[in-house]
Amino acid sequence: MEIPFEVINLDDQQNILLIINAMIGEHAVRLVLDTGASHSCLSKKSVKHLMGKVEKKADVVIGIGRGRMKNKLIHIPNFKMGDLEIHDYPFLVLPLAHINKMLSSIDLEPIEGFLGSDILYAYKAVIDYNTQTIRLQLPSNE
What we know:
Helix content: 10-25%
Radius of gyration: 15 Å
Order of helices and strands: EEEEEHEEEHEHEE
Strand content: over 45%
Largest sheet: 6 strands, mixed, barrel
Number of strands: 11
Shape: globular
């Protein structure tokens, strides 16, 4: 399946974001396609808005470098991108206000999170910059 993405130039061709539109339940979300993120995540603000009160589980994530970060993990009951639906998928909850503040300062819409390598790898993502689409394959066990 192919899903379109939008290329946003932040200042020049050297600094871009790839934005993919998705759904969490009945809510549209904008996610940055981030091959460098080990796990998909949502902003704390978005989780409160989209999910209301949710049960969060503490989790430890090891980042780049020697430090460890403690983050919250939530399970999203229904996540959809194009024709792909993923049920009960864990997303990290991270503070992303600083990113949305930067985007706002250059008159760009906020994001709700990042689509990370966990999903990209599981669904054998191929990013086609020429057609501005991402191709995904269902795992053989689905």
